[in-house]
Structures are given as structure tokens and as C-alpha cells.
Design goal:
heterodimer, A: 294 residues, alpha/beta, 6-stranded antiparallel sheet, 5-stranded parallel sheet, 9 helices, 37% helix, B: 158 residues, alpha+beta, 5-stranded mixed sheet, 3 helices, 10 strands
Chain lengths: 294, 158
């Protein structure tokens, strides 16, 4: 897979999570493909400004973002002759297969579902980077099909984060201080139901997740937890293919965990707890109608 | 020659006539590394996710744990001329054995931990055959790096 020195592609990552941007950058580095520059943007509007400023060869875009989301950004790109044929790879937790299909009709090269493993990201990135370097258009990839139980969906999302964290540090279960925990929650509604997903993790653990990715700015720990909650929620809404379409997700919120809340989250049939190296993250789903099966 | 790798054990070979094999992989994980250019292969069979769970034991038996075991295997490979960024990484195991019905049993923990180890090392995992409830046998052919996993009377090429 030779990319010659003269055609090193410039990559633009558009994602509101600094953690996700850092993880994507690291995987690009791991592929050992030559990349000229990696630019970053926190939402669609910033992404378009980056495109105005200089030459970009491939765009990796999230969908669910504040200010201007990925759908709007891609639509604007497709309406502008300068960027109409620019390769776009979408990396998102989009639960609606129709919307993914729409994106493909707009010429999106590939869709990668969050949470992704380093290997899945590589498999999507390598052809996109080579295509960007060679200015040819490879075929798009099929979106993953989902038919997971709730527990599997949650477990899969949590495990993805487990190996991406340099160290699932922080207190283990026995000496966890409730005051040091944060809960990120996402509300969802649609298909005649509404509910919420809450995810709790020790603050130190979330902060340490970012060390490897090289993210150090203020609020990054909460950003990581919000991203994890968002991604987990996206996974969860794929549980029922026919009933899981068209859900609206609220922007994730983060709050300190109360002791009572943590106790509730450690038991119960709608709760999943990940233990890795003796540390834990725990997630809970609440709905006001029984539309999913355990 | 067939070289058997026991539990909490690892072997490295650069002899093309050798095959590395490990049996009775349950919730444990076996990792094979192979550098096709240097023609060096290695196989680790570890039992527990992390040396942090029991540092004293890990000093005595580093091959018992995923993190220290992987580090030791990579070191043994590089001392024979293999390069980290050329190594193919394959793994098998992490079954949920016996009556361990909890969602996050030792097999899952072993799997999450080893993925984390290779993420930290900046190495992709090229293939894996993990999970389920059946024990496995894993083989690495040093001549060409071919890896097979036998599970429930079926043989898979990784």
C-alpha cells in the first residue's frame, strides 16, 4: 500500500469529542500510512471553515454534534463544487439505518459505527487514505448489522472504552468514594417510548482514560464520559432493528453521583458493570415502556 | 518439532520445522506473534488479566498475566531479531467456562485486558477467536506463520 511522499493526504477529523479525535489520530499513527497533516474541528461549522482554509483530502465526520451536525455539514459540502467529490467517512453512533443509507446516497465512502475497535477503524481508514492519496473512489462499506441484546450492546460499548483507556485507574469497588464519581446521562425518545441511559465512572478513571490519547484540556474527563454515554446509548438503540429507528437523543449531561444512585446502579436487571483489572464502569438503562428485551 | 506451551508459559522459535501449540485454552488467552521477515514466531498462554492484581506473583511468574506476559513474549521475539511493527498479532481463548454465568467473567476480563495491552503498545490485533463456552487448541506454524484454532471439533484458520 504505497503512498508516495509527494501525495501525503491531509485528514480532517470533525467530532465534538476531543477524546474521539485523539483516538482517531492515534489509530492513524498506528497504521503507519503516511499522512501529511491531521486537522481537527469540533462541529460541522468549524469543519467547513477548515475546508475553506486549506487543502483537505479526506474528512472523517461524526454526525451528532452541536452548532452544525454532520448531516448539515455533508449536505453543504455536496452542494459546493469545491468539495462535492471529497471523500467522507462517517464515524458515529447513528441508530437509524435509513439515515445511513441516505448518507451513502450522498456519496459517503464508508460508515463506521461507534464504538469502534482500533482494527475496525483501520479497516475503514486505510482504503480512505489510499483513495485520498490516489484520488480514486473505492466502494463504500456496509454498515454493521445489529441484533444485540441490551446486555451485549452495553457490554460491547464499555469494552471498547476499556481497551482504549491507558489504565482503568481510579478506586476499585471496595474503596470507591461516591463523591468522586460522575454520572453521564442521555435521554432518548421515539417509537412511543422514552427513557434514559446513565453511566457512572470514577472521575480519576475518566481523567486517566485521556492520558494515552494525549488530551489534557479542562473538562476533557467529562467530555470522555459524555462521549461514552452517547456511544453506549447509540448501541442500545440498535437492539431492536425494527423498533429502534428514529430515536431522538438529548445532549449528554454530567453530574456528580449520589451514593443512592450508585447503589441503584450496582444492582438490577437493567444494569451492566464492566470490571477490568479490578476497576469498574457501570451503566443503567431506564425506560417507561418495556420495548426492549433483556 | 512440536513445542507445547503450557499454562502461564510462552515459547519462541525461529526454526522452520517447529510448530508451537497450546492445549486446554478455557478462559485463558493464547497470543501468537509472528514476524514473517525475521521468520520468528512466539506463543504465550496466560491466565489472568493484569499483573496489578497480584504484583508479587507477577514478579515470580510474569507469564501468568496478560500485560507482563505480552511484554516478555515481545522481548523474547525481538532478541531473536523480530521487530514489533512487523509482528502479526493473533489470539484465541476467553471462553466463559463452567458455571460462571456472570456477564463479566474472567474470560471477558482477560480479553478486555489484552486488547488494552496491545492498544497501549500501538499494535493492531490481526485476528482473534474468542468467547463462547468451549475450550480451544491453538497452533502456530513457524515456517509460514499460519495459525489455526481448534474449537468444538472444528478447525479455524486465523
Amino acid at each position: 500500500m504505497g503512498i508516495s511522499q509527494t501525495t501525503l493526504p491531509t485528514v480532517l477529523i470533525v467530532d465534538d469529542s476531543a477524546t474521539t479525535r485523539a483516538v482517531i489520530k492515534r489509530v492513524i499513527g498506528m497504521t503507519e500510512l503516511g499522512v501529511g497533516a491531521v486537522l481537527e474541528a469540533g462541529d460541522g461549522a468549524q469543519g467547513l471553515r477548515q475546508l475553506e482554509h486549506g487543502k483537505v483530502d479526506v474528512v472523517l465526520a461524526d454526525l451528532n454534534m452541536p452548532a452544525m451536525d454532520g448531516f448539515q455539514m455533508i449536505a453543504q459540502m455536496r452542494n459546493d463544487p469545491r468539495w462535492r467529490s471529497l471523500p467522507v467517512v462517517v464515524i458515529s453512533a447513528q441508530p437509524d439505518p435509513h439515515k445511513i443509507e441516505q448518507l451513502k446516497q450522498q456519496g459517503v465512502e464508508a460508515y463506521l459505527a461507534k464504538p469502534f475497535t482500533a482494527e475496525k477503524l483501520r479497516d475503514v481508514l486505510v482504503p480512505a487514505l489510499i483513495a485520498a492519496a490516489e484520488r480514486s473512489i473505492p466502494g463504500g462499506q456496509e454498515a454493521d448489522s445489529f441484533n444485540l441484546s441490551l446486555a451485549e450492546a452495553l457490554a460491547s460499548a464499555l469494552e471498547t472504552m476499556a481497551f482504549m483507556s491507558p489504565e482503568l485507574a481510579g478506586p476499585d469497588e471496595s474503596d470507591a468514594q461516591p463523591g468522586n464519581w460522575r454520572v453521564a446521562s442521555v435521554d432518548f425518545s421515539g417509537q412511543g417510548t422514552k427513557g434514559s441511559l446513565a453511566l457512572a465512572a470514577p472521575t480519576e478513571m475518566v481523567a486517566d482514560m485521556l492520558a494515552m490519547a494525549g488530551v489534557s484540556d479542562q473538562g476533557a474527563a467529562e467530555d470522555a464520559l459524555k462521549e461514552l454515554a452517547n456511544v453506549t446509548c447509540g448501541m442500545f438503540l440498535r437492539v431492536r432493528p425494527e423498533g429502534g429507528m428514529g430515536f431522538k437523543l438529548s445532549p449528554p449531561r454530567v453530574a456528580a453521583a449520589s451514593e443512592t444512585r450508585l447503589r441503584e446502579m450496582r444492582t438490577g436487571r437493567d444494569t451492566v458493570t464492566l470490571r477490568a483489572d479490578g476497576r469498574l464502569i457501570t451503566a443503567q438503562v431506564h425506560t417507561d415502556s418495556a420495548f426492549y428485551d433483556m | 518439532m512440536q513445542i507445547v506451551v503450557g499454562i502461564s508459559d510462552a515459547k519462541v522459535s525461529s526454526d522452520e520445522r517447529d510448530e508451537l501449540v497450546t492445549y486446554s485454552l478455557g478462559s485463558c488467552i493464547a497470543v501468537t506473534l509472528y514476524d514473517a521477515q525475521a521468520r520468528v514466531g512466539g506463543l504465550l498462554h496466560y491466565q489472568l488479566p493484569s499483573s496489578e492484581d497480584d504484583p508479587a506473583r507477577a514478579r515470580e511468574r510474569p507469564l501468568m498475566f496478560g500485560d507482563t506476559g505480552a511484554a516478555a513474549l515481545i522481548e523474547a521475539m525481538t532478541s531473536r531479531g523480530a521487530l514489533k511493527n512487523r509482528m502479526q498479532v493473533k489470539m484465541a481463548g476467553a471462553a466463559q467456562m463452567l458455571n460462571d454465568a456472570t456477564a463479566f467473567d474472567i474470560g471477558r476480563r482477560n480479553h478486555a485486558a489484552i486488547r488494552k495491552v496491545f492498544w497501549e503498545l500501538g499494535m493492531f490485533i490481526d485476528a482473534e477467536h474468542v468467547g463462547g463456552t468451549k475450550p480451544r487448541t491453538m497452533r502456530l506454524n513457524v515456517a509460514d506463520g499460519a495459525v489455526t484454532v481448534k474449537c468444538d471439533a472444528e478447525t479455524f484458520i486465523l
